[in-house]
Specification:
single chain, alpha+beta, 7-stranded antiparallel beta sheet, 5 helices, 7 strands, 26% strand
Length: 148
């Protein structure tokens, strides 16, 4: 069984194809996460910029077991990740870049915005979830080198 097949078996379904290629090391985007920022609108429509801290990818010694642990940990930080999403990267302030892996959000990319949770005190899975991109490739295109 391949690493991807093991991840999908642990999740209980397929990983979106664009993210699957990224996990396997396709493309050069974000091989080193440092120095990139993710500009987005939060749930209140305010512009935010979050720096990428960690990208979850099968490379450079990251094991399948680690990835399964990341996917199964549905409660990073102060809130929960919706069950139809998996974390792609951790951002500043414990925010997460996530991809839908099943249902109507499959293949679409979202941000779990913990700044919003701090403002309103909610901790349910959908709190602070904001749309980022219609596909993983579009999300990669929106991620920018950090400005000094």
């Amino acid at each position: 069984m391949s690493d991807i097949e093991r991840l999908e078996a642990a999740l209980g379904g397929p990983i979106p194809e664009e993210y699957r290629r990224f996990l396997l090391g396709g493309g050069d985007q974000l091989t080193s996460p440092f120095g990139y920022q993710v500009p987005y609108l939060d749930a209140l429509g305010e512009q935010r910029d979050a720096a990428i801290q960690t990208v979850y990818r099968l490379s450079r010694g990251v094991t399948v077991e680690f990835m399964i642990g990341v996917y199964r940990s549905r409660s990073p930080g102060d809130g929960l990740i919706p069950s139809d999403m998996i974390p792609v990267a951790s951002l500043t302030d414990d925010n997460r870049l996530m991809i839908g892996w099943r249902g109507p959000r499959a293949g679409r990319v979202f941000i779990k915005d913990f700044w919003q949770l701090e403002d309103d005190g909610r901790d349910e899975p959908e709190a602070g979830v904001v749309f980022f991109a219609a596909s993983f490739d579009q999300a990669l295109a929106r991620i920018q080198p950090a400005t000094k």
